[in-house]
Amino acid sequence: MSRRPELARRFFDRIEPVHAVTYFAPNVRAALDDLGYRGFWMGYFAARSAPLGRVPAEVVTAIFYNFAPERVAKALPAAWEVALPAAALRAREQSAAAALAGCGVTDSEDVRTAGALLAKAARALPVDGRPLYAANRSLDWPQDPVAALWHATTLLREHRGDGHVAVLAAAGVSGRECNVLHAAAGRVPREMIMRSRDYDESQWQFHTDRLARRGLLDPAGELTEAGRTFKQEIEDATDALGLSALDALSDDEVETLFRTLTPITRAVVAAGIVPAATPMGLSRDDLDDASAHLSS
Which residues of the chain register pLDDT less than 50? Predict the structure, then answer.
């Protein structure tokens, strides 16, 4: 049976919550605070960019894509005067594993099986055009099974994210415009994305007007028919690229991965650490279905 792009979307919905504890779990924030990082955003940019090393804020802005340059510049390079990337990497790995343990994700046969399959998938991917994935892949692989599971999901989500950025750039959608388009499509609440990505009303309107001039939004900021088609094409192209994340696995291995990973994701979701509405626009609609639907 051929693999359809929808499989990549369902796979993302399963790996992202496991990775995302690093942004939402209180103990992760505490671990970064303990290093001396000031406030959530300094810890966020330090921890997520740490695999890149001490690169300029402009590089992080380019790779992360949808953040205001001013927001990144408030955190970097100042964070490296507080604690170096190696310390941030240790803190995020250890605290993420502890957060997952708090969700009931501990060393077990399913965790080891899912982790091994995720690692096989993640290690086999090419680095071409995937800077954040490549930086994370260069790191030492954790020995702890739960940390290894988290690390593998991190590689795979950043690989998809790098691909999504490539699709947006090719479509001529800037990092700041993509947030407005995402909200107009109903994937994230406007108020939440404005707050988390630093827009005031005038900035939001500026990017809304730019998209409207392309015929993608109407004067009220709603998607036009052309805009709905355009947005769906972006999502479809991202999913089509994302399918490569599973290229190293046979259909049987993909089925085993979904069977073992889905309950882990459900446990993370049930713990309530990752909110239902996030900038990633996750879906939880089929997390009761642990099949990839590839078996004949």
Answer: none
Coil, strand or helix: which one is 294? coil
- State the first-to-last Cα distance of the chain, in angstroms, to the nearest integer: 7
Each residue of 235-271: b (16+ CB within 10 Å) or e? Answer: bebbbebbbbbbeebeeebbbbbbebbbbbbbbbbeb
CA angle 282/288/289 to nearest 5° reads 95
Domain ranges of the chain: 5-168+238-271
Separation between Cα atoms, residue 90 and residue 77, nearest integer Å: 19
- DSSP label at 51? G
Q: How far apart are CA 178 and CA 192, in angstroms?
A: 14
Distance, in Å, from the CA atom of 124 to the CA atom of 33, rounded to the nearest integer, reads 35
Q: Tell me which DSSP letter residue 95 carries.
A: H
Q: What are the tokens at 26?
A: 């209180």
Q: Count CA atoms closer than 13 A to 180's CA, side-chain side.
A: 27
**How much is the pTM?**
0.95
Residue 101 burial (C-beta neighbours within 10 Å; 0-12, 13-18, 19+)? middle
pLDDT digits (tens, 9 = 90+) for 283-296: 677 888 999 989 65
DSSP letter assigned to residue 244: G
Among the residues of 124-144, which ranges form H helices? 131-137
Separation of alpha carbons 188 and 181, rounded Å:
10
At residue 180, φ and ψ (nearest 5 deg) are -65, -45
The residues with which 217 forms a beta bridge, in sequence order, are 223
Of the CA atoms within 13 Å of residue 163, those in its CB half-sphere come to: 23
CA dist., res. 296 & res. 291, Å (int): 12
